[in-house]
Amino acid sequence: MASSFHPTAASHAFLSQNDSTSLVVTAIVFIVLETIFYGLRTLSRYYQKIPFGWEDALMLLGWVTCLTLAADGIVSVRFGTGQRFLKVIQEHPEKIPLWGRNNLYAIPMIYCFAVNLPKMSVLGLYLGIFLDKWSRWTCWILLFVCGASGIVNFFTVAFQCNTPEAIWSPLLPGGRCDNVDAHITYSAIVNILTDLVMIILPISLVKKLQVTKKVKIGIALTFLSASIGLITAIARFIQFIKNPIAEDPTYQGAKLIIWIVVESGMYLISGCLLSCRPVLNKIMSSDAVSTIFSTNRSASGRGTKATTGGTSGISGHQGKTGNTTEGPKARMDEESVEGGYYRLEPTKPDKIYVKKQFSIV
């Protein structure tokens, strides 16, 4: 990245500007949030007795890289991030090489995996749900794209200059760097496109469910929770265009690192949300949380258990169980289906068995 910033005389007010506090606060907040949601995901899967799989390994690595990225953002403040470049180069020129190695090498390289590992974990979860050929092929293609994107971007950053010093010393004789600033900015397009496909992917599955509209909305919102990162990916892309780092490397760098931390953190949090339903239902009992994560409402005074299922594609047909009267059965049809939790259980290729549990008065 060849800097276009040229130190000149500046006012005291200009040199006193510092955006490092915003970076530190944001990083700390996301370290806490990432740990909370990853912990909830881990507890939830333990509570459900789900064996540790490769999607869990990817999420674990994603959590570690996101924490490392946020922590490195805090460390970067010691090297002048958040301060005006002119002030840093005048008062602490010895910090510039440390700042360059950290902000222009380490942070972008960590970011390459921090945004992709949680998405790959979600795709692994999708592979355990989708059984039709095209959905599974799409998941595998997206897995390849996300993995390849992380690896390609990592090595592009690692070898962006013929000598590392050239990135913070553009006048270094013989120094040459690629325009990695533009590369990191526009790499967000891959994230945005893959997110859009991941949003579209479950739509056909949800549409085929033979359940009430309210239940479909609840299930759709559960899938959509895994794509919250799309919003921050778009926001990060816009911020990188509006605030090019070359204008004032250390000062603008704080804003850009904030958005990098937020984007990767939201990918991790949204990926964890898909698996947090059991624990969240125990912690929070509001209707909003119940609708989004389980569409499962508790009703007092219910006793006899019944289970229904169907195997015609994707279905939620009800079956008769127990000794019931027409009144309770009618209420079961109208109320219990809306309030029940639908679990998609694979049976055979191109078929999904939808199991529902409810209680009858």
TrEMBL record:
The keyword Transferase does not apply. Keywords: Membrane, Transmembrane, Transmembrane helix. It is found in: Membrane. The chain crosses the membrane at residues 20-40, 60-79, 105-127, 139-159, 184-205, 217-241, 256-276. GO terms for cellular component: membrane. Residues 297-326 have a biased composition (Polar residues). It is a multi-pass membrane protein. InterPro entries: Rhodopsin_dom_fungi (IPR049326), SAT4-like (IPR052337). Belongs to the SAT4 family. This is Rhodopsin domain-containing protein. The lineage of its organism: Eukaryota, Fungi, Dikarya, Ascomycota, Pezizomycotina.
